[in-house]
Amino acid sequence: MTPDSLAIFVTLLLIAVLFHWLPLWRRASLWFGVTVAPDFRNTPQAQRILRQYRIEMWALSLVAWVLLWTGVRGETAWMFAAAPLLETIGAAAAFARGRNRTRPYAQHPVGTRAASLAAASEHLPGGPIAILVPYATLAAAAIFLHANWQRLPSRFPVHWGLGGAPDRWAERTWRGVDGPLLAGCLAIALLHVLGYMIVAASPRARMAETADWTARFRRANLRMIVALGWTLAALFAVLALNPYLSADGSLAVPIWLLVAPVLAVTAGFIWPIIRISQEPGSGSDGTPDECWKLGQIYYNPNDPALMVEKRFGVGYTINFGNRASWLLIGLLVLMALVPLLL
Amino acid sequence: MTNAAQIRIDLDSAAPVNRQIVDQLRTLLVDGVIVPDDALPSVRRLAIDLGVHFNTVADAYRTLAEEGWLEISHGRGVRVRQRQAPRPDRAALEETLASFRQRLRQLVAETRAQGVSPAVVARELASLVEVLKS
C-alpha cells in the first residue's frame, strides 16, 4: 500500500469517527435537526434513533473502504475520490433518515423571540491586527523571495506526495514563486469573508434564555476562524519559501510538521465549540424545522439572516433562501477557482 | 442602556410583529430604560436577530420616529431623541383619555375572559398605579 492510499484510509477512518459523534454536538433541544424537548436525547427512543444512524453510517463507511481497497488493488484512480464521497453522502443520508425517525417527537418551538438592544457591536476576535497578520506574513514571504530571486532554482517542486516525493513542478516565474502565497491569501480571505458574514449577518441570539450560550458559541467559532487564518498563513509561507530553503527540491520541513499544526489548531479550537454544545440549557436555535431540507440545508426566504448555526456539523451554514447567499456562493467559488486558473 | 433593554416578540400572537416592536420600544422609552442619545440596533441587525423582515423593523422605527422618539439618519443609525412631551389642548386631551379608558376596559375584559379573576386584575392595576406614582 502506498503512503497516499494509506493516508486516504486513515482519512476515511477519521471521517467515520467524526460522523459517529457529530449528531451529539448540537443544542440540547435539537435532535437530528428536529426541535424536541430538552431531555429527549436521554430517552430510549432518542438512543434508538442514534443507534440506527450509527449502524447505517458505519455500514456505508465499510462499503467506502471496500471501494477504496478495490481501487488500490486495481489502481483505479476514481475510486480514491469516490470512497470519501460515498462515506460523506452516506452519513448525510443516514442523518436524514434519523431526522425522519425523530419527527414524530417534534415539539413546536416557542414562538417568543428576543433581541437585546444593548448588545455591543461584534467584531472578529483580535481586531484588525489579528486579521492583518496572516496577510502581512504572506507579504513578507513574497518580499523576501523577490529580494533573493537569483538564489532561487530555475525549476522547483510545488507539490509533494504524502511520501514526500515531489509530483508537480514550477518555473522561477512570478506565477511559480508567488502562486502558493496567492493561494494562501485567497484561502485566508475566504475564511475572513465567512467570519465577517457570521458577525454581520447571523442572529446573535433569538431566544432570550439562551443568549449567553449563543454568544459564547459565536465567539468560539470566530476564534477558530482567526486562528486558522494564522495557521494557514504560516503553512503557505513555509511552502512558498521551500525553493529557497531546500537546494535539492525536497521538503525543507517534514510533511508531518506541516500538517500537524493545522490539525492541532483545528482540533484545539473545535474542542471548545464541542464542549459548549454539550452544555445543558442551550435550547433551540430559533429557526423553523420545516425550513431545514434533509435536516441540513437551510432555506428560509422569510429569514433575513444570511448565516445560521448548522444543525449537522460544526459552525455555520448559509441560508439558501436569502438572495444574497448566491452572491456569497459565487464569490466563494470564484475565490476557490483563482488558484486553479493561475 | 442596561441589559434589560430587550425586545421580545411572539410570532404566535394575533398582534402584528411591527406593532409588538413599537409597543415594547415605547414602553422602554417611557420607563426610561432607553434614554436620549442611546443608539438602537440598525434595522438590519434587529431584523436578523429577531428573524423578521427588514420592512417590519423599519416600519416600527418609522412609527416611533414620527411620534418624535427616534431619529433615523444614514450616517449615525438610529438614536433616541430628546422628546418634548406634547401639550394637547383640552379637547384633544379628553379624546386621548376616552381612548385610553376604552382600550383599558377592552384589555381588562380580554384578561378576565381568559380566566383571570377581577381581584387579580385589580391588584395588577394597583401595582401599575404605584409604579406611576414613583
Secondary structure elements and pairings:
The complex is a heterodimer of chains A (342) and B (134).
Chain A: H1 3-21, E1 30-31, E2 34-35, H2 44-74, H3 77-102, E3 112-116, H4 127-147, E4 155-160, E5 166-171, H5 174-201, H6 211-245, H7 255-278, E6 292-293, E7 297-298, E8 307-309, E9 316-318, H8 324-341
Antiparallel strand pairs in A: 1-2, 4-5, 6-7, 8-9
Helix pairs in contact in A: 1-2, 1-3, 2-3, 4-5, 4-6, 5-6, 5-8, 6-7
Chain B: E1 6-10, H1 17-30, E2 39-40, H2 43-50, H3 54-66, E3 70-73, E4 77-80, H4 90-113, H5 118-133
Antiparallel strand pairs in B: 2-4, 3-4
Helix pairs in contact in B: 1-3, 2-3
Describe the structure.
The complex is a heterodimer of chains A (342) and B (134). Chain A is mainly alpha-helical. Helix content of chain A is 59%, strand content 9%. In chain A, the strands form 4 sheets. A two-stranded antiparallel sheet of chain A has the order 1-2. In chain A, strand 1 (30-31) and strand 2 (34-35) form a beta hairpin. The longest helix of chain A has 35 residues, at 211-245. The radius of gyration of chain A is 22 Å and the shape is globular. The two termini of chain A are 33 Å apart. The model of chain A has no long low-confidence stretch (mean pLDDT 88). Chain B is built from 5 helices and 4 strands. Chain B is mainly alpha-helical. Chain B has a 3-stranded antiparallel β-sheet. The chains are: A mainly alpha (342), B mainly alpha (134). Chain A binds chain B through residues 111-119, 201-206, 208, 286-287, 302-305, and chain B through 1-3, 5-13, 28, 34, 40-41, 44, 46-54. Strand 3 (112-116) of chain A pairs antiparallel with strand 1 of chain B, so a sheet runs across the interface.
